[in-house]
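Design review, sub-item: ligand-bound model
Attendees: FS, YL, KQ
YL presented the inputs for the zinc ion complex:
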Amino acid sequence: MIKYELMRSRRKTLSLYVRRDGSVEVRAPFLTSIEYINNFVNKKQDWILSTQKRILAMEANRQTIELSSKEEALYKMKAKEYLKQKCQLFSHKMGIQYGTVRINGARTRWGSCNSKGDINFTYRLIFAAEELVDYVVVHELAHIKEMNHSANFWAIVEEAMPDYKVRRKRLKDFQYQLELVKV
Ligand SMILES: [Zn+2]
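KQ shared the predicted structure:
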């Protein structure tokens, strides 16, 4: 039986999380029996074990990069140049016009855009593999046409980048692997 921490609340459904340290958390409604919860956890055993393995591997590969303000400013400049080029390239390919490209230092969002077609990217992208950068660029350009994550949106992404699902997953992993620290 897999060990887990049980958190009861006024929720209506059971759910299962594997935390960053590999421990398991189950969130359950107040009245769900322990037997039912144990059963639920047992059924998810394969998923829990493979997720724990993946998380531990990612933690082992975790990389910390220290940046001074000067270095950060330099990376922001480089990122702007690089991402402007990428936007031009994919805008051509996808037939989607965009506005101004800006660079920020966002930690959890790789990119965002507004209804005028302006796109923001985080300079952190400069540390990612090119195939991942390309995916973020395609994703944001597709948002200019579809400001949501509907089936239409993903169809636009897929047309420009048939293997986008693999890249999306790698980008998620990459997010955990890189830690930038300002010194
Ligand atoms: Zn999006």
